[in-house]
Amino acid sequence: MRKFYKAAVLGIMTAFMAGLLFVGQSQAITKSGNKTIIRVGNETGKTDSQFIGLQVMAAEVKKLSKGSMELQLNPGSVLGSGPAMVDMVKNGTLDIYMGGAGFFAAWDGRLFVFDIPYLFSSAEQAHAILDSDFGAEMLSTLEPFGVKGLAFWENGVRNITNSVRPIKTPDDVKGLKLRVMPANPVHVKIWTMMGAKPEPLTFSAIYDALKNKTVDGQEHPISAIYSGKFYEVQKYMSLTRHIYGPLIMIMNKASFDSLTKEQQDIMITASKAGAAAQRKFIKDNEAKFSAEMQKAGMEIIEVDPAPFRNKVRPTIEKDYIKQNGNAWLKKIESLKK
Fold first, then answer.
1. Is residue 336, in this structure, part of any structural domain at all?
2. N or C, fewer C-beta in 10 Å, the chain?
């Protein structure tokens, strides 16, 4: 496990140091007359919950700034992959991106806490902790790396899909080629422990990989499985609910610092409003999305989560504590309701 962490840290830090060469040379914030234009990139498309939330955030920025600020939205990976957009935000060629916490955990390993399986009992329990003062403390750990954490958004509760067989127990995962998040050693270890063959791929590459059967399956929250149309190329979805994952919205710190205090407050307030709208959209539509995927031919399987939890939770938690201490884990446990 230590080798996984070291490799991830080395890769991210190398990209970070290269990105430092560009800070101050190419800031993405632009002016159009008296209007401040801020560029935002994300991986998922216009039907996904992320874009729904971003539209709310953009409207809030426009309203609170009385039209003097504008978000320019770039969904669907049109600016590049998730890792590429992280680098763009760091080096100042993109203002805002949001991605899974695993993208940033190599900077501060404590953020790998969100990859501990079955850490939260519900999304609502996670929201209460992420929106607390402790959540703000977690976001502040990103600032030494040149980015400002604006708010926690929603990735959701992850479930596994595949095109080979129904997954009801951990043994059913054995031998499957499974797409995992790039640069996330914890996810690699989780699925290796299950007996799968993890294949790191960017989000934009998943559909074709599933269609061409270069991978057998993937794991994402229901809303992302639906918006990504993975049900078109996957036969089975097992409701393992193995990880609740937040998204973190980051902004280039130099860009953030170039704003007035009033504008900075607008960005944080608007980001939180977008996150709230996105979470509501996911909650309100998961049953509908599941029904539509079933109608399209996907078989949805309820599973007992206990065998999955028992298979991986103790080892992943032990590894986490060994690498990062248990202060954050204890704090999360103390804040659970």
1. no
2. C
Q: Does the residue 331 lie in any domain?
A: no
The residue length of the chain stands at: 337
Q: What is the CATH number of the domain that holds 122?
A: 3.40.190.170
> Tens of pLDDT along 103-127?
899 899 999 999 999 999 999 999 9
Please report, for residues 3, 222, 284, 300, the alpha-carbon distance to residue 287 in angstroms, rounded to integers and kept in the order given. 40, 9, 8, 12
- The three-state secondary structure class of 1 is coil
Burial tier of 155 (Cβ tally within 10 Å: 0-12, 13-18, 19+): buried
Given a contact cutoff of 8 angstroms between Cβ atoms, the answer to whether 147 and 91 are in contact is no
In a domain, 129, yes or no: yes
Q: At residue 82, does pLDDT exceed 70?
A: yes
Domain total for the chain?
1
pTM of this structure: 0.86
- Residue 10 reports pLDDT greater than 50: no
Q: Residue 44 gets which letter from DSSP?
A: S
